[in-house]
Design goal:
The chain is of the alpha/beta class and 398 residues long. Helix content is 38%, strand content 15%. The chain has helices at 3-9, 23-33, 43-55, 66-76, 93-101, 120-129, 151-161, 214-224, 258-268, 271-289, 322-331, 347-352, 361-367, 381-396; strands spanning 14-15, 59-63, 84-88, 105-109, 138-142, 164-168, 176-177, 180-181, 190-194, 207-211, 228-229, 246-247, 294-295, 303-304, 310-314, 334-335, 370-373. Strands 2-10-9-6-5-3-4 form a 7-stranded mixed β-sheet, with helices on both faces. Strand 3 (84-88), helix 5 and strand 4 (105-109) form a beta-alpha-beta unit. Helix 4 packs across helix 5 and helix 4 crosses helix 8 (214-224). It is globular. The protein binds pyridoxal-5'-phosphate (PLP). Pyridoxal-5'-phosphate binds at residues 65-67, 91-92, 94-95, 142, 168, 170-171, 194, 196, 207.
């Protein structure tokens, strides 16, 4: 049953995540709707400025989705046909698709079964035994559920083996490693955020690519707007005519509208509150669930998770009842989800990799045991208790 059908049937449905919109958001959007520009006005540059300041990167390029941001990030880093990209299979398909758009070959590495992020020891081993011509041009790192990956180690490896790093931080706006906010690009070339309604903040649809490299930022700006340059100083042909503009490369219309950016501006003001609430709910879950036959999210001192998702896993004892428990939770009003089925097992990826096998046992085990339970800022204590009650009931059945 899908969420819309369920919502019609029952009024008490808790989704795994959802947006929080208040009157400030509505006012902010309304202001743009009453202004002269619905797109290509002042709201997008303002949103970009606030966002880069918030996470500590020099430049930010706002676009219409994280998928678009990942695509132009790959292009800006010069990803070409048959280049190699390495990433993890436990992610949303867009992570890998962005590299496929460029004609690159994607190799899936296994996750660490504790953190659900890339297994860095395995990465190091694989890099050391891979022939130079087969080394990756780009590594795309996912901070699954908002828990930061081991960026310091990964960054070190990128220097030794000379690959670029894109962070798919779609889950991780508001997360940090020590005092390094995810998005400051200290340990990566480009960091991408999503503003889909289930993520840390929303613009409806939207995304952004952040970087400290001016050239990369300029390239991405060009790519999001058809490859069209309007800045006289950067034109290839000198012209004083006011009507002159030039298309310098093949770009796209990946622009964010000012309506979306206005929502982003007011949402960003609530980011700290959102992350605090998500961490509060997570803490309650840790207290409630620690004695149940479940595996709870990994925690690490100095790693702040944004808790985009709260993923529980069934242990060996309960694993065989996965389908039953999943359906039971949905029937009882928890709209739980699986994040994610391994990308390499999707029919499309099987088709394009006919003669290739990826060795990702942990991603597979994860997908047979993981359940994302509700977590979002406006969950009440009674909502949290309801989740606990239904979960206990589902686990008692066998
Ligand atoms: C949501 C998500 C995306 C895509 O984000 P959009 O803004 O919907 O394009 C990409 N990667 C991951 C890991 C995501 O969770």
């Amino acid at each position: 049953m899908n969420l819309n059908k369920l919502l019609k049937k029952k009024n008490k449905i808790l989704p795994y995540s959802r947006q929080l919109i208040d009157n400030n958001d509505i006012e902010s959007v309304t202001k743009v709707l009453k202004s002269n520009f619905l797109t290509q006005g002042q709201a997008v540059p303002k949103f970009e400025k606030i966002l880069s300041k918030k996470v500590g990167a020099k430049y930010s390029v706002a676009v219409n989705s994280a998928t678009s941001a990942l695509h132009i990030a790959c292009l800006a880093l010069n990803l070409k046909k048959n280049d190699k990209v390495w990433t993890t299979s436990t992610s949303f398909v867009a992570t890998a698709n962005s590299a496929i758009y460029c004609g690159a070959k994607v190799e899936f590495l296994d996750i660490d079964i504790k953190t659900y992020n890339l297994d860095v020891n395995l990465l190091e081993k694989k890099l050391s035994i891979t022939k130079k011509k087969n080394l990756p041009k780009i590594l795309i790192i996912v901070h699954l559920a908002g828990f930061p990956a081991e960026m310091v180690k990964i960054f070190r490896l990128s220097k030794k083996y000379k690959f670029k790093i894109i962070e798919d931080a779609s889950h991780a706006l508001g997360a940090s490693i020590n005092s390094n906010k995810i998005g400051n690009c200290k340990y990566s070339d480009i960091c991408v955020f999503s503003f889909h309604p289930v993520k840390s903040i929303t613009t409806g649809e939207g995304g952004a690519a952040l970087t400290n490299d001016k050239k990369l930022a300029e390239k991405m700006r060009l790519l999001r707007n058809h490859g069209i340059e309007k800045n006289k100083k950067k034109m290839l042909k000198k012209s004083n005519a006011d009507w002159y503009y030039e298309q310098q490369t093949l770009g796209f219309n990946y622009r964010m509208s000012d309506i979306h950016a206005a929502l982003g501006i007011s949402q960003l003001k609530k980011l700290n509150y959102f992350i605090k609430r998500r961490n509060y709910i997570a803490k309650r879950y840790f207290d409630f669930l620690k004695d149940l036959p479940l595996i709870l999210p990994f925690k690490k001192k100095s790693f702040l998770s944004s808790y985009h998702l709260f993923i529980i896993r069934l242990n060996e004892l309960k694993k065989k009842n996965y389908n039953w428990i999943f359906s039971f939770l949905r029937k009882k009003g928890l709209f739980v989800n699986l994040h994610y089925l391994p990308i390499h097992l999707q029919p499309y990826y099987k088709k394009i990799n006919k003669n290739k096998k990826f060795n990702c046992p942990n991603s597979i085990l994860f997908s047979k045991t993981a359940i994302s339970i509700p977590i979002y800022p406006q969950m009440s204590n009674s909502n949290i208790n309801f989740v606990k009650k239904v979960l206990i009931k589902s686990l008692e059945k066998f």
